[in-house]
Amino acid sequence: SGGFTAESVRHDFPILHRTVNGHPLVWLDNAATTQKPRQVIEALTAYYGAANSNIHRGAHTMAREATEAYEAGRAAVAGLLGAPGPETVVFVRGTTEAINLVAQSWGRASLGPGDDILVPVLEHHSDIVPWQMVAKETRARLVPVPLTPDGAIDQDAYADLLSARTRLVAISHASNVLGTVPPVKEMTALAHRYGARVLVDGAQAVAHFPVDVRDLDADFYAFSGHKLFAPTGIGALYAKPELLAAMAPWQGGGNMIESVEFGETTFAAVPHRMEAGTGHISGVVGLLAAVNWLTSLDRGAVAAYEDGLMAYAHEALAAVPGLELIGSAPDRIAVLTFTLAGHDPATVADWLDADGIAIRAGHHCAQPALTHYGLESAARASLALYNTSEEVDQLVASLLRLQQSA
Ligand code: PMP
């Protein structure tokens, strides 16, 4: 397996060695956020212990060092995404802010009455609500793309909904609630035939498989650092160079200008024009460490390991009486959303928590996707590269005890 084992990477994660409620932690809430390797934690300590500075080029040594670290982070993100260059990467707080940036900057300028924005029913609220808001403002139409019963995007319906009116298609590269990995490259090519732009929400994808924005031909690609073993509060937006160059700044302030007079301001070049104010410098330092850590692994071996663990977990969970798994599209990341007969999802999560097992219960910020299955709430176990089949066994054993206790 190219030298990759879950056991070897577990050594990098101090938190995985704590106990919760007297039991060794079993962290199965990776779709909400991933844990951080010591390489990331140490990079943050080193930055604040020895390198903290704001990033003004040329002011002093530490400012230059911080600037270099910040721009090294940008180059690392460009590398991670297969972007043509660092100038196509804008730092943001996370996926949510990236999508709002595109909606407010590109969307306000490009959408109008009679235009369609196509959004699959399985999207996270952060890939629905910003479009809804800008659609209201511009009198464009937000059009849901339906799902098939197994939780895939209905490709026939998608092809039918596309038209000369379509300005934008916004799709997740992997669903946080059903795990579905849609054929983004094919969907993008189809959208482009109608002249539409495509935004890809990569929040759930980047930690699980390599991404290549040029191969996808995505116009925009967004992700959050905290789902990629990096700190919270930092993420990135990739935009095609010609799109980014034409986009108006969405926030004004320091760091994004060339010169300011009361009559007129000229803006800095992209990507800086899109980054008003002091950025999350330590966040970028942590993100750089996380990207370096992740890309030092054999990613093909990691993806194969996760697929194997997913298949194992799927089979093991399906054997629990009364347990129903939701979503069974053939291409999926390791997200297992389920209901358990006789117990509401919050009770299931509480029960597992008492055994030190962290899962999420609720609507997963994807209410339309759950509504598609007639549900308001579900339990979700989401796996990462450091999870093991023993942990899956513990999840299953705990669920079986819950069933027996009823
Ligand atoms: N999209 C998807 C598919 C997600 O899973 C998430 C996080 N659950 C988001 C967007 C939003 O990410 P963030 O809260 O980090 O901005």
Can you tell me about this structure?
The protein is α/β, with parallel strands linked by helices. It is 39% helix and 17% strand. The chain contains 14 helices and 17 strands. Strands 4-10-9-8-7-5-6 form a seven-stranded mixed β-sheet, with helices on both faces. A four-stranded antiparallel β-sheet has the order 13-14-17-16, with helices on one face. A hairpin with an 8-residue loop joins strand 13 and strand 14 (335-340). Helix 11 (299-318) packs parallel to helix 14 (389-405). The protein binds 4'-deoxy-4'-aminopyridoxal-5'-phosphate. The site of 4'-deoxy-4'-aminopyridoxal-5'-phosphate (PMP) has 14 residues, from helix 4.
Q: List all distinct small molecules, including ions and cofactors, that are bound in this structure.
A: 4'-deoxy-4'-aminopyridoxal-5'-phosphate
Globally, the shape reads globular
Strand order of the largest sheet: 4-10-9-8-7-5-6
Low-confidence stretches: none
The fraction of residues in strands falls at: 15-25%
Distance between the termini: 42 Å
Per DSSP E runs of 2 or more residues, the count of β-strands stands at 17
Q: Helix- and strand-based class?
A: alpha/beta
GO molecular function: cysteine desulfurase activity
Pfam families: Aminotran_5 (PF00266)
Family: Belongs to the class-V pyridoxal-phosphate-dependent aminotransferase family. Csd subfamily.
Domain Aminotransferase class V: 26-395
